[in-house]
Amino acid sequence: MARYAFASDNVAGAMPEVIEALSAANTGAAAGYGEDHVARRAADMIRELLDTDAEVRFVASGTAANAISLAALAQGHEAVVCHEHSHVATDETGAPGFFGAGMGLITLAGESGRIAAPTLQGVLGRPDQPHWQSPAALSLTNATEYGAVYGGAEIAALVAAAKGAGLKVHPNAAAAGFDVKSIGRMGVDVAVLGGTKAGSTPTEAIVLFDKTLSRRFGARLKHGGQLVSKARFLAAPWIGMIETRAWTVRAAHANAMARRLAGLMPFQVIHPVEANAVFVDMDEPTLERLRAAGWFVYRFIDGTVRFMCSWATTEEAVDELGAALKAVV
Amino acid sequence: MARYAFASDNVAGAMPEVIEALSAANTGAAAGYGEDHVARRAADMIRELLDTDAEVRFVASGTAANAISLAALAQGHEAVVCHEHSHVATDETGAPGFFGAGMGLITLAGESGRIAAPTLQGVLGRPDQPHWQSPAALSLTNATEYGAVYGGAEIAALVAAAKGAGLKVHPNAAAAGFDVKSIGRMGVDVAVLGGTKAGSTPTEAIVLFDKTLSRRFGARLKHGGQLVSKARFLAAPWIGMIETRAWTVRAAHANAMARRLAGLMPFQVIHPVEANAVFVDMDEPTLERLRAAGWFVYRFIDGTVRFMCSWATTEEAVDELGAALKAVV
Amino acid sequence: MARYAFASDNVAGAMPEVIEALSAANTGAAAGYGEDHVARRAADMIRELLDTDAEVRFVASGTAANAISLAALAQGHEAVVCHEHSHVATDETGAPGFFGAGMGLITLAGESGRIAAPTLQGVLGRPDQPHWQSPAALSLTNATEYGAVYGGAEIAALVAAAKGAGLKVHPNAAAAGFDVKSIGRMGVDVAVLGGTKAGSTPTEAIVLFDKTLSRRFGARLKHGGQLVSKARFLAAPWIGMIETRAWTVRAAHANAMARRLAGLMPFQVIHPVEANAVFVDMDEPTLERLRAAGWFVYRFIDGTVRFMCSWATTEEAVDELGAALKAVV
Amino acid sequence: MARYAFASDNVAGAMPEVIEALSAANTGAAAGYGEDHVARRAADMIRELLDTDAEVRFVASGTAANAISLAALAQGHEAVVCHEHSHVATDETGAPGFFGAGMGLITLAGESGRIAAPTLQGVLGRPDQPHWQSPAALSLTNATEYGAVYGGAEIAALVAAAKGAGLKVHPNAAAAGFDVKSIGRMGVDVAVLGGTKAGSTPTEAIVLFDKTLSRRFGARLKHGGQLVSKARFLAAPWIGMIETRAWTVRAAHANAMARRLAGLMPFQVIHPVEANAVFVDMDEPTLERLRAAGWFVYRFIDGTVRFMCSWATTEEAVDELGAALKAVV
């Protein structure tokens, strides 16, 4: 039977801290739709984590969290600027265009999933005209799809450029392990904080830094099919992850596992290993031998082969994979 | 502090069987997006429950489940026929129109939330013309928003009329406690089975009786923000509820609690108590006294006051409420 | 062969002034997409007609003009308040919901198509909540679908109430013959001025009183399929109609023809004859006799039978119809 | 004052044959919404022109014609395959995504705007999966954006490949001058025939070869804001263009003017001159000199400079431009 443990960070289950928090939240009656004490407490914790007074809402899907956030920042006849290999551009089956009433994406190239400031400037300088969708928002993913992490100065430059051109900014904190507190200080508008890939049951946090967006946001969520009634079960995992610091500690563990794997890797590592992913150069016959040996991993958009670690990855599993990799070289 | 226990069936937490099933599903790596063993087993159980070979998918929101199902049955320039007080018409913030690209609703009156066959026929007889949205699907809720339950013959007549006019049929099994096996035999197209209100953490099952609809349904879900990666946590609750028969037994309990409450009721009961709801005639000063006494319940669209029981409602709570009601008469 | 001349005001052709203006505009090369001299001149004339400095854009369809205007005023999770028998609610095949990403309509009753201020207030007083689409805009039609005309004080009260509750206002000037200059002074946001029914080839003017809406409005139009390249042919008819005063004079004629018809009418006239329509009480056998005599007219939503006059209606035709009506009584 | 005559084929006015047909159609009352005798006659003529029994509908905008046609062929969670520089991909402000509820575009490279069969095959071979929008339709433009024309065998191969993979096919006959009769024999589903650029006032014909699509197509058009009431004015131009053979003869003239211009061109002609466009290699200072000399033309997506001829282009204008070009080399 194929082993999927390194295929994605969503093949892992939920941290014990999450399951415990779900059980703890499961007592008595509670108001629905995020008006309950659990949702309030989880929102408080996220505000503290990000050092902000932003509004926080919980949804079940990262794709929906991104798409609804972007649709709140750009209109259908406008576009969102993003990396050409970003999740919103390549892995969400057109959800941004659907939630955004045909909203467009302007995709930019950039090394290891990072958008470089000059590339962004090139797009921002184009004149408005009725025949194309002018940029209204910038979507940034950190860590990137290639496991690289933007530095603080790098991201500040992008935000400043976007803001200077009148764009809104949507950071998608797809994995933990970097300085999330900085998000709140960057002047962004709506952030999405990934819960599921971090190690939770399905939950994502939408953080409305621009609080004018919170008007009728509940209606926006329900209209988009993202306002669940028993919302405490989307909120509770965050309590479990933040209160115990598991969100931070376990992300650091996943990142350490990726570095360990990179150290064992008999193939050329292509992208910086700054989060929980390792991308390598591997030819097709080798990948087939690896799969034949029982390890399932994906060839990614840029042609490299991707290995993902998660909160649940153990040193033993990494070492076992390392040995398997050496055997198929 | 206000007591919300009778305000809705979604104020209750999750059954212990659900929490146990979540824990049980939380072992090892599993493929994402519903391709895992937990999702397969839950789907098998639902197929057995409904005596069908339909495709089964799990989503986190009932509103989304309905809206996506209806959007698969009718196009934007067409309409869905439903009761004027149905959840899709009154309580989903326009989600059907959003997921359905402006798809319309043709709302019909009918006693206690039930559509009568002649009323439906009146709409089906209208000629197609380009200036209105002709009906393409019929959405039925059982039990209705007023806690009434369609009889088998009644519902068969509606389905036959709809099918005879070329419409698709979408039953929304919002609460348990009636013969769900009959759904599969009625010739319907897509059913939504409510998990959350039945007593689960957020999960709803979309049952594709018309299997031609299953083509690219995963893409449809992801496009609509409803394909969660760790789908096992939407599937597992169904295993917990069906394997232990809790879905049926606890629904029967909720219905019994509603009957018990109806028996204690010092106000006129307006709608048939056939599921887990009791609707009564109560003037505003009385409702205010009840709220002042700490019991929060809603005045519904038709002007009656609604009391909802759930799997978690106890005899003691019903009796306590009964006493409170007598005190405010 | 059936005579359709009184069936609608869109069965008439175009005024000679319009055809002449089309020919006059058909000289030499001109920039496309409304950037040409014809479009500029037509816009100037409309600004002068309405005594405003608003932005003016031309589209080919009244349904699209309304739907795109409303979509610029309300979001998908919000609603537009309108009369229950208004064109946007009953005769546009769901276009507002489509252009508005599932935007809802809150429909109000009101005599002869007019919304009364207290009825509007009833809706505006409802609290915001996530489960329904709260009102974000008010759409008013003048003359109404029943040929009644709002008085200045009446409409000012509606606009004031809407504005006081934070709504935007969209007047749809579906027929001429009333004081259009007043529109600009009312503080409305986007008006649609009907060209086609007034007697033009297909053209409608969108008047952006709120000039902040003009940002990227060309892109909004193109995104919605309403930015034609040879826009001068949508603009020229307005020059023909306004320069010659035909827009006003011929509308007055159509209204006079309706009054003449009302005077000849052997049936009870149900709605005020204040524009170009006459609605009467006529039973089905009589209507059938009228149709058998070769006159095709419609039974309207409220059960009355509608006769529409247009710029092209002659006194002779009215008198001939009058005689035919007497013959079928 | 800048001369726009070669900037686009939509800067030209309408042929005299079109204006005459508009006048001829402007007699008496006619049923609205395309149910009139003018629309029927125009549709008959197009059917004869294309040797088909297809349904024909008229709309005012080419962007809308394409977007509505594509939305009838692919669902929101699916995609349309097209050339990366096609009008639908680069010049319609996201209209396909809007009309198609977030429908995606899969854009392919290809010389001079043509898609090569092997490139198409590469996309068709991809497995369906829920994380991207699988192709459901192929959109072909002939002549291409670069003025190249697909040969019959070439286009037959593309249609066969698409059909073999279950895709629908949408040819967009953006300019005349090639064998349009072949369209009907290719087994395509919905074609758009360009009227405006050919030399008409705004009108485009949607030709429904797959007649099952004609069910409720009027409602689809109205829902999308494309069913004008006085539809005879969108239909009449086709009568004027086809009856007099102006559509064919004047297209041949425009193409001849392009060849004449190519013959005079002192710059390298980059794409085949097979229709009414000439694309040349011109550096920026030279283009600026040309503009300074009063001739406005566009630099196109591929970096070349585009000159468009139209039905209205005269030999004298071509020769004058030729001289101007020589002067700025």
What is the share of helical residues of chain A?
A: 40-55%
What letter string, H or E per element, gives the SSE order of chain A?
Answer: HHEHEHHEHEHEHEHEHHHEHEEH
Percent strand of chain A equals 15-25%
Question: Which structural class should the secondary elements of chain A be placed in?
Answer: alpha/beta
Quaternary status: homotetramer
Average residue pLDDT of chain A: 95
Unreliable residue runs of chain A: none
The biggest sheet of chain A, with number of strands, parallel, antiparallel or mixed sense and barrel status, is: 7 strands, mixed
Query: What is the molecular shape of chain A?
Result: globular
| Tally of alpha and pi helices of chain A | 14
Largest interface: A-B, 53 and 53 residues
**N-to-C span of chain A:** 21 Å
Please tally the β strands of chain A and state the result. 10
- Rg of chain A computed from alpha carbons, rounded to a whole number of angstroms: 20 Å
